Amino acid sequence: LRELRCDVAVIGAGTAGLAAYRSAREAGAQALLIEAGPGGTTCARVGCMPSKLLITAAQAAHDARRAGEFGVATGFIRVDGPAVLRRVRRERDRFVSSVLSEVENLPQDDRVAGHARFVAPASLIVEGRDTRVAFGAAVIATGSSPAIPKPLAGLGDRVLTTDTLFEIEDLPRSLAVIGGGPVGIEIAQAMARLGVAVTLLDGGHALAGLTDPDLVAQANALFGAEMTLHLGTKVERAERVGDEAHLAWAAEEGNGGSGVFERVLAATGRPPNLQGLDLEETGLSLDGKGSPRFDPRTLLGEGAPIFIAGDAAASRPVLHEAARQGRIAGRNAAAYARSERQGITAPAPWVNLAMVFTDPGTAAVGESYDPERADERIVGAADFSNQGRARIMDRAAGALRIYADRAGRLTGAEMLCPDAEHLGHLLAFAIQEGMSADILRDRPFYHPTIEKALGTALGRIMEARAEL
Ligand SMILES: Cc1cc2nc3c(=O)[nH]c(=O)nc-3n(C[C@H](O)[C@H](O)[C@H](O)COP(=O)(O)OP(=O)(O)OC[C@H]3O[C@@H](n4cnc5c(N)ncnc54)[C@H](O)[C@@H]3O)c2cc1C
């Protein structure tokens, strides 16, 4: 048995783990990075990057099809499925290899390949490596993995997750997407635009994680025009027959349905990768789901010198939070290992920012819509059906809703509109700075831009306040 000692053991070399390793080193700690899989990060290998590559191909097909609106004749549009997927993989491989070469450039002694599991509060073993690691502090950065709902388990290779989707050789003729959250709706719309007959099923009634009833209704209408939607449904039976998946679902209203699909994509959530870590050995206090209780600011777990960051922590499963949490956890783990409890920092959380790369896109910033607090909030809305720039681009659909407290201070926003990714950032920065509607309104808004709609919505908040 090889016995290693380190100040900080980081489990998982994804976005959070790599950030944790680097910040622990920068803080002067001797750090060890343990990775069970092929590495390259979820983001680059099976997450953000390949999904956005697929979406971009779909957007190209969509733009080509509607070029006629602008008087540009394109002729017959044909989507070459294998070519689409080849480009997705080619570019994806570049992103993955750049992460892998970054990792290969780290000192050899700082890296261990294998699955880590805890054997004591300050000790773990790396399976298959005959290695035991004694650490001063550890960072759990093990990410999350797609779940396959039970009824789909018997579908064999007919059921895909985002771990396998980007490996298919050709686009299917038909696809059932189970789950209309951010991952499901992005892939569903992209596939539909690439010519796949898409049916989306979801147990709830809101797509893309939207909460504002006005936007929920608009999203259902807009996305429903591109695919078959069955909301408020639950898959009850799934059977593989030849090369097809036969699904049967129940609906809240009682009238369920059934369908036959070439492929099924399970997009029903990503539970954190905590099984197999033997957390019971650590002394960490665990909640009912077996997840460690931890301080959301310092990221220190209760009961052991173990920090948690990224999707493993399951608080905000998006990339920029994984990177930030990794940095905080790594720095704090280094301080903890040096017994400098006073060196542990508890930075204030960033304003919440989440996006979905559909067309129109969505963004949610800060506080979400809360019917219970309707009396305490002012809503400033802007509609895009007649917005100047959106009409110029033939993208005149959707709405922006900004929330403020009765003093006019911005508290949150939700949108389904063109360039949501840019408006989302602007509002996130403003909300984090504690800006009020009148201060942000008193900034230059260039004409004719999508941002002009922001000015409109802010103006509505100011009008509503004047009437209070
Ligand atoms: C399809 C899809 C699209 C997405 N799109 C976006 C987007 O557009 N924008 C955005 O912000 N976010 C997006 N996300 C989410 C984003 O990818 C994740 O939030 C982020 O990658 C999480 O990083 P992480 O470091 O926590 O986990 P990971 O990158 O998954 O790293 C965890 C690592 O830990 C390793 N590991 C696990 N268990 C062990 C063990 N016991 N021992 C050793 N190693 C172990 C794993 O092999 C893995 O390499 C998307 C996700 C998916 C799936």
Précis, in short:
By secondary structure, the chain is an alpha/beta fold. The chain is 30% helix and 25% strand. β4 and β5 (123-126) form a beta hairpin.
What descriptors fit this protein?
11 helices, alpha/beta, 468 residues, globular, 20 strands, binds flavin-adenine dinucleotide, 25% strand, seven-stranded mixed beta sheet
Please tell me the overall pLDDT. Answer: 97
Report the C-alpha radius of gyration, rounded. Answer: 24 Å
Main β-sheet description? 7 strands, mixed
How large is the share of residues in beta strands? 15-25%
Strand elements, count: 20
Class inferred from helices and paired strands: alpha/beta
Low-confidence stretches: none
Measure the end-to-end span.
72 Å
- Small molecules bound in the structure, each named once: flavin-adenine dinucleotide
| Helical content band | 25-40%
Q: What is the count of helical runs? A: 11
Outline? globular
Question: How would you characterize this protein structure?
Answer:
The protein has 468 residues and is an alpha/beta fold. The chain contains eleven helices and 20 strands. The strands form four sheets. Strands 1, 2, 3, 4, 5, 6 and 15 form a seven-stranded mixed beta sheet that branches. Helix 1 (15-26) runs parallel beside helix 7, helix 3 packs antiparallel against helix 4 and helix 3 (48-65) packs parallel to helix 5 (182-193). Flavin-adenine dinucleotide binds next to helix 1, strand 2, helix 2, helix 3 and helix 7.
